[in-house]
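U., I forgot to send this yesterday:
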Amino acid sequence: MGRLWRCAASLGAAGLGVLGLGVLGLGVAPATPARGAVPATAAEPATPTAGGTATAGGTATIPPTLAAVPVPLGAPTPVTVTRLAVTTTAPAAATAGVAYRVELAASGGVPPYRWAVAAGTLPSGLALSPAGVLSGVPGTPGRTSLTVVVTDSSSPVRQRAAALLTVQVNAPPFAGQASSNWSGYVVASPGPLLTEASGQWTVPALTCAAASEAGLATWVGIGGARTGTSGSSGMLLQTGVSSDCAAGAQVETAWWEEFPSEPNGEVAFTGLQVTPGDVLRGTIYQTTGGAWVTRLDDLTTGLSGVMVTGVGWGISVDGSGTFSSEGSTAGLSYAGGTSAEWIAEDYEQAGALVPLADFGTVGFSSLTTSLPSWSLSGADAVEIVQGGNVLALPSAPGPDGFTITAAAPTAAAVSTG
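Result:
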C-alpha cells in the first residue's frame, strides 16, 4: 500500500516569489526597474529553519516531516520471516482397520510447506503426503515412533524443521467374548455335531526371563466351549503342547486330553519331543467306525502323537497309520461336540491358573472343520481377561487364520466370562 503523501506547509507571498519563480526556474524574467531608478535589492531565498514558519526578511522554515530521510517511491515493504517449527506434537490415535486422516501442522517460515519422513517407518497401511496429510487404513495395532521433517518456501535459503512423532494404532473394539483362560477363536455348529477340526501353528518362544515360573498351552479341540449363559458345547477333546517356564528355562510337553474325564487331566506323549519353532498340526476327527482320534503332527521332525479312543495312545513316524503304544484308552469314549476351537490357554495347575507366560505372538492357519459352510467372524473371537485386564488378544480373522498376541495389561472393555 505504500505511504501517504503529505502536503508541505503554506509559504508566505515573499517566499513564494523567490522559491516558486527564482528557485524552480520557470523562465519568468525578473522585473526591470524604471529607467533612471535605482534597482531594488533582490530578496534572499528563504532559509529553512526547524520551525516551519515564515520569518521577516523573506526566510521560511520547512516542516520537520519533509526534513526526514526520504523513502523512494515503490520500495518493497520489509518482511520478517519467523523460524519454522512443527506444531503437531501428538497425532490423534488411529484404529486398526478404520480409515484414518490427520493433517500435520507447522508455523513460521514461508508457506507452502513440504513434508517427508526423515527417520523411522510409519505404521503399516499409513502414508505421509508432501502436503503433510497422514492417511490410510492402518493394519496391526501398536505404537510407532518416527521423525518427520518439514521444508518451507523461503528464498534464497529454505528453512527445515524436524519433530519426533508417535503414532498409536489401537485395536478395534472387541466384538467377541472374554474368558479368564482362553484366547483364540471358537466356531459353533448351527446344529449337528462336528466330526473334524484341525489347525497349524508354530511353537512360540517364551520370554522366561520376565517370569521364571509361567506357562501357556496351544491346542486344537472340539467341544468344551460355553454357550449362552450356562450351556456347553459338549465334552472337550483336544491335542496340543504346553510351553512352560521352569526355573527360567522353556520346557515343552506334547499331550492329548478329554475333559472332563476320569481320571481328569492331560496325557503326555513321552516319545514326542517338541522344541520352540517346531511347526505343529493338530487334528481331531471321528473315524468311520465311530472311534475318535487326536493327532499331533510335528511337521518339523516327522513324529506324531496319536490317541484313539478305546485303543490307546503312542508315537507314529512320518504319518504312518500305526503307532508305538505308550498307553491304553480302553473304556474311553467321546460323545462329540458342537464347537471347534483354536486356542492359546492360561491353563490350571493344582486348581489355580498359572501365571500366563509372555509368548509374543502365535498364529493358527490352515484351519478346517467338518461344517459344510463356515468362516471366522469377530463374534467368534475370545480374549483372556483377568482382573479387568486383557492379557491375550486375537487378531481379526484373515483368509487363512489369525494370530494371538500377548498383551501388556490394559483395561478390558468387557467383563470376564
